[in-house]
Amino acid sequence: MYICAMNFSSKILEDAVNEISHLPGIGKRTALRLVLHLLKQPKERTKHLSKALNRLVDDIKYCEKCHNLSDVEICEICANPKRNESIICVVEDVRDVMAIENTTQFRGLYHVLGGKISPMDGIGPHNLTIQNLVDKVNNSEIQEIILALSSTIEGDTTNFYIYKQLQETNVKISTIARGISVGNELEYTDEITLGRSILNRIPFENSLKI
Known about the structure:
This protein is α/β, with parallel strands linked by helices and 210 residues long. It is built from nine helices and seven strands. Helices cover 43% and strands 13% of the residues. A five-stranded mixed beta sheet has the order 4-3-5-6-7.
């Protein structure tokens, strides 16, 4: 693959471009445009960006209960006494929490896995928070687990693995309705469709027959 070399007049500029080009979907040319754009902005604006990134690295936490990203030990959703603690919606990451919250149709709590089982990528059950979910079901008065992973091979594999881990418990296991197209990620699904999929969820056993 041919990659056009860049001749930088500044090592500082080159370092900034190299670091930004490590972001997903950002090549060297796009990184250079972004860096030059930052240089044209008032210094305070760029410093605010730098400060926000430093805080992101140093201060952000994972909620002790659901593993969602949070500023404090227990996130606002888990700390909200108006949420239904007996229903847990299992999602891949924080983007899915945000997508479901935007529908305003779900008032339970969440459990963030931190990914999906994907042997091709070297991600197994032990790399996710599945065991923590199993422990939570065994030690809490949870009535329903909603499996809300994307309709992909990895998502379906993860759903089935969790189902098998919880099959012998008394908890109800359901999955979001297939109003969401196969292969689609939750974060790209419109709020109305996603909200209806949550409300019209079906027992997980039924999804195995589809």
